[in-house]
Amino acid sequence: MLADKNEQRTSIEELGEFGLIKHLTKDFELNHKSTLKGIGDDAAVLDFKSKKTVVSTDLLVEGVHFDLSYMPLKHLGYKSVVVNLSDIYAMNANATQITVSLAVSNRFPLEALEEFYAGVAAACKVYGIDLIGGDTTSSTKGMLISITAIGEVDEEKLVYRSGAKENDLLVVTGDIGGAYLGLQILEREKEVFKVNPQNQPDLEPYSYLIERQLKPEARKDIVDLLEKLEVQPTAMIDISDGLSSEILHLCEQSKVGCNLYEEKIPLDPTVISASEEFKMDSTMIALSGGEDYELLFTIAQADFDKIKGNPNLTVIGHMTQQSEGAHLVARNNTKIPITAQGWNSFNAS
Ligand code: ADP
Ligand code: MG
């Protein structure tokens, strides 16, 4: 289960910086009309005509944001792109270009970077993204990745975190909590492996959870779906840190409160069974787990009929007056204040 050790090890220094960039990026194609110039000059050139441009960037540090002992480099390349695209889709925009910047220590051979770029290429293909530049440098220790994603959107389609109104419905896509449990399983197996490297764990029962952690997808399909359904969300955010923290962002920026219904939170059956195995509360995991990269948005009640019954969308609550605060309405009907860490069970009101 540990990341593949590459057989061949070509030192990066053999190629030189320019040779390396050329080698890693030679197979990338440009497909967007808005990309006037990609890799190869001092700067890329873009033209979005009458559309608004959205830009988002992330910095990922080895040992802080990812662990290469169970994260294969190809998956890391894919995930690094996907988590950035998720931020663009959370603006209700279409992602179009990325830049990829890397710092690597001499521990990484060329073959490792090829794997990483294979993952970047796969994500570019799946999501229809042009790689238009980046930067490459050395680090004294470990790997750092910075990706910037760029997208375009008609001004009237843009969705901020700040537009939710009292009585709007709170909607989440897909199901949540899986990525956090996938990480718990990988961490557990890493410890087992340390003690006995011969032990081959059976991870098949956890394949959905592990995939949610190692190969998340961004909800480009939801941006397309909302357009097709003619639903314009009033506020939107992507779920990178867990439901409770994202709900609090929407509430704070929109100046509203929220009632979130515990019984409505969409959980995959394997999330429920793995929660029991880890003796954790599945609601707590959904609220504070994170890394699911689903979208959380609000819509006017008048739009409910348009989304009703869609298997991708679950109404999990509604927005209230700001003075009412943000609460989880538990299965037993008690109201528990939502905190950034999840919920505070000592503060039931
Ligand atoms: P500069 O010295 O002006 O920073 P570079 O030699 O670093 O230029 O980059 C040359 C070209 O290669 C630029 O178009 C840059 O965006 C691109 N590039 C550099 N590193 C990467 C990378 N890791 N991935 C993709 N493109 C890159
Ligand atoms: Mg450079």
TrEMBL record:
Mg(2+) 1 binds at T57, D58, D135. GO terms for molecular function: thiamine-phosphate kinase activity. It is an enzyme of class 2 (transferase). Substrate binds at H65, E291, W343. Reaction mechanism of ThiL seems to utilize a direct, inline transfer of the gamma-phosphate of ATP to TMP rather than a phosphorylated enzyme intermediate. Catalyzes the ATP-dependent phosphorylation of thiamine-monophosphate (TMP) to form thiamine-pyrophosphate (TPP), the active form of vitamin B1. This is Thiamine-monophosphate kinase. It comes from Croceitalea marina. The gene is thiL.
